[in-house]
Specification:
It contains 22 helices and no strands. It is mainly α.
């Protein structure tokens, strides 16, 4: 927040780090396809092929791939093989290629298997889908993300519905640099979840926010951050969203303090600079008690109180609060005589900062009833914030619902509403 009032955002430095950190794909759990569509002694396999194929199958089960290859070479040397015999040999060879993570070999073999199967229809049930998934995983492990995505696409186009396949496709597209399509697919998944009244995956929302940011699509990345805050309201997510709001060119200067209040309310302030930025703005606005309260929390978190500047700041805040207490009665009498409620309202807001919620809210309500001549929407915002700070959430939400305006106010009100509902 220093200078341009920015907060540091905890995020992955690259989309690759973002995807790998999430770990949606547990490649080790991808099932290796069955060694063959049926036992090598099934009808259509001649006796002179049966023995080496059975041996190869048993060796594959023991992960002895080199020895299994030798057995397959014996079978492959047999002349005049039937299409079914070639199919069985290719199935076993594919198991070896997958086991050895030979992506190119696995792709070639699966293409041959699918071609042979067009005539024989030997693949049963979802076998072809599982094979496509397994080959896609091999390409993913090999970091050939374009082909990994292509195999997952083929799986889905062939009728596959496994969520794991969809997730690998999305990650592969993002890692291959196809951010636009990957983001569109994540949007589709989120829409399906919301339609089914399910909470969208945090991993999907995180990847979407990062991908849209990399695409420089500010509106879409902000929407993703908003969903993260709505569904997963961690202080890190709040920090990112509030930072986005603070850096908006159209955010009114007078709303910066209100935005930092939201950061304080959601515990999104990160370091000493964040705290001092907030405290100094509150102090300049005449709310030293609010600033002192923020200082005390920052000190309790070990972020403030370690330097002479911090100690001087606290001394000044404490002195100002004490002066406000001494003059409160006289100031209230004076404010009651004013033609409008502005002074009365501000006195009440300052009392709320002193944790004197009942008295402070009473003055604020009287001030609103008397009339606020300038920016009355800001007064309603502050009254709603005061209700929230006092723990009167129902009143806070009712009051927030009456506040709207340009220059970032509508978004700020929405964010405050979410914070009150899911603090």
């Amino acid at each position: 927040m220093k200078d341009q009032m920015t907060m540091r955002i905890i995020q992955a430095s690259t989309l690759l780090a973002c995807v790998l950190a999430i770990g949606l794909v547990n490649a080790q759990t991808a099932a290796t396809p069955a060694a063959a569509a049926s036992a090598p002694t099934a009808p259509g396999v001649r006796a002179n092929l049966s023995a080496p194929l059975l041996d190869a199958q048993n060796l594959i089960k023991e992960n002895k791939f080199a020895a299994a290859k030798e057995k397959l070479q014996i079978a492959q040397a047999v002349a005049d093989k039937t299409p079914y015999e070639s199919y069985i040999i290719d199935r076993l060879a594919l198991s070896i290629a997958i086991g050895e993570e030979d992506a190119a070999g696995a792709t070639k073999l699966l293409e041959q298997i699918l071609q042979l199967d067009k005539a024989g229809a030997w693949l049963k049930g979802d076998e072809s889908l599982r094979l496509m998934q397994a080959v896609g995983i091999v390409h993913y492990r090999a970091k050939d993300y374009t082909k990994a995505a292509a195999w997952m696409d083929r799986n889905i186009q062939a009728g596959g519905t496994e969520q794991a396949v969809k997730d690998v496709r999305i990650q592969s597209l993002l890692l291959a640099g196809n951010l636009a399509r990957g983001s569109d697919l994540i949007d589709e998944e989120i829409a399906l979840d919301e339609k089914a009244k399910k909470t969208p995956s945090q991993a999907h929302l995180t990847m979407l926010a990062q991908a849209r940011t990399n695409l420089k699509d500010t509106a879409a990345s902000t929407r993703a951050l908003e969903k993260l805050v709505q569904y997963y309201p961690t202080k890190e997510h709040w920090r990112s969203l509030i930072n986005r709001l603070l850096n908006r060119s159209d955010l009114s200067i007078r709303l910066q303090l209100d935005t930092l209040r939201l950061a304080f309310f959601t515990r999104a302030l990160e370091d000493a600079v964040d705290y001092t930025d907030y405290i100094e703005l509150a102090q300049k606005a005449g709310y030293s008690a609010e600033g002192l309260s923020a200082y005390e929390r920052g000190a309790a978190e070990g972020l403030l109180g370690n330097t002479d500047a911090h100690k001087k700041l606290r001394t000044k805040l404490a002195h100002e609060v004490e002066q406000d207490r001494k003059t409160l009665a006289a100031d209230t009498i004076s404010a009651l005589k004013k033609p409008d409620g502005f002074a009365l309202f501000n006195l009440g807001f300052n009392q709320v900062g002193m944790q004197q919620f009942d008295k402070g809210l009473e003055l604020m309500e009287k001030g609103v009833a008397k009339g606020i001549p300038k920016h009355p929407e800001d007064a309603r915002l502050h009254l709603a914030v005061a209700y929230a700070q006092a723990g009167q959430n129902d009143k806070a939400l009712q009051t927030f619902a009456t506040v709207s305006g340009p220059e970032g106010l509508d978004d700020l009100v929405r964010y405050w509403t979410w914070a009150v509902r899911k603090p």
